[in-house]
Amino acid sequence: MAQLSSVMQADSGDLRLHAQEREALQDLEYDREKQYISQEKELDSKIRPQHRLIHDPDVSFAEYYYYAQQTRAEEETHPTVGKTGIMGIIFPAKSGPGAGQPNDDVNSNVHVTGDVKQRVTISDEEWAQASRALRTATQGTAFYLITTDIFGPFGLPYAIATMGWGPSVALYTVFAALAGYSGYLLWDMFMGLDSYQFPVRSFGDLGFRLYGKYARYSLSILQGLQLILNVGLLVMSNGGALSQASQEKLCYIICCLVWALVGFFSGQIRTLQKLGWLANASVWINILCMLVSMGGAGKYGPNYGSINSSAGININPAFVEPVNGTYPPVQTFGGIPPSTNGFVGAVGGAMNAVFSFGGSMIFPEFMAEMKKPKDFLWAMWAAQAFIYFCYMFYGLFMYGYQGQYVANPSYLGISQYGISTAGNVLAMISAVIAATLYGNIGLKVLYNNVFVEIMKWPPMTTKTGKFLWVALIPIYWAIAFVIGAAIPNFSGLTIVVGAFCILQFTYTFPPMLHIAYKIKRAALADRGSFDPATGAAPQRPGLTDYFRYFFADRWYLNVIHVIYFLGALSLAGLGAYSAIEIYIAGFASGVTTSFTCVSPFGSG
């Protein structure tokens, strides 16, 4: 997935400042800060942005919106760095100093201090410049981040095989269009809520500013859950690849353990800037792996040893079971294939297709790093088009040659050992990069938003926090290993992640958040704006007012978004049901067994 935050980009500025600032600020007791701020308010007519808590419930939507418009106007005056358009995407400029005043030397204390008393001495311009300095990414960087994917292309052939030619093309096209629209909604909200004074740095920040602290907690926890499940999937796929490369001379569970141990050590890296060029390279490694897989599928037959991870086993086992020692011929279907489990297989395929567009979860983090977030929209549409055409061609090609025998992930379904091993090696290289990044980001999300925020643990910048980080990394990867070993049904687990996590961040949450954004915008237009001289903001609307503002300017968009939101929830429910049914059938038939030594992917 394209869920590798700009933490991984070497040319995206010193991103440690983000974590250090947040962690240090969260280390203070809430009541003590609020008491001090109240004392300051008595001496001044307003509370300045640098005197606020990181997530201050007293900051109104009007104040967020006022500073966002101020920031957007300033960004329009910034000179463009490097090429724009197609050339800027293909050859992204090396990011230089931050947005705004590139030659200013910003005091590092502006970034890292968490003491409100110290921040009182920081001027408004110093506080804004501290945020400008961290915005260094270009639209080319955003493009590569969105297209950095490990699951999307290699799960799509399986998805097509479960749905057939026509339905899969139609559904994948709809998913692509809606994913792009969701990206637009996130961009629209970011442009109206982010500012140098109050930067938006995560999906949870959008939830907090529109629905409150519990929305931020929920989004952060779900984000952390998705990332640890992604790591579990990568442990499974790499374990299967290593087992297949060794021709099953190595026990599958040991192969998975090898990658978990790799994670124990690679996860100790607390800053991933030096891996930035590897993250960019992983895009091209995946493309090379796709080409190798297509070459193998076009010249050689399917890997009959991997039928337990094939589409056919979940559609209709008769499609892949040998008769008198002879396997059925490759079959493709124009419509949904006849299935022994009804629509479960097709819904499961749809959930695998969702993986291709699972990067929305970190879109706000991408935009937070850009010199001009306005340019993100162009990069996002370019990335979605790249994903759609490249992945679609790959998926249709593999289905055409392997039919019901398409495995998930698809590079494990090549019968010729040399080609299969080449694909496995490329996939393992890309996956270990992704696993390290997913694990690091996922643990940081949990540590900062759950352990520090809710359980009052010390931030990672403290000595105690560093020891806790070192201790938690093995636990995190051990959990990922248990997930992969206990549930070695790769397709089933991808359905779970797609239904419960990816689909929510890409299709459910954006329209839900945008409804609140439009209502608050309508209230702002009706009740007046924020006064920067006095700090006065219009009174917040009541419950009945929200209903009135729902039907204000372009109310039909809110209605469409409600339908969109409910439709995404319904699809998520179907996906969850499909995953449960697949697991029940798998464990009942013995195809899926926990902590097995025999690889569920087979060796050909």
From TrEMBL:
It comes from the Eukaryota. This is Lysine histidine transporter-like 3. It comes from Lipomyces kononenkoae (Yeast).
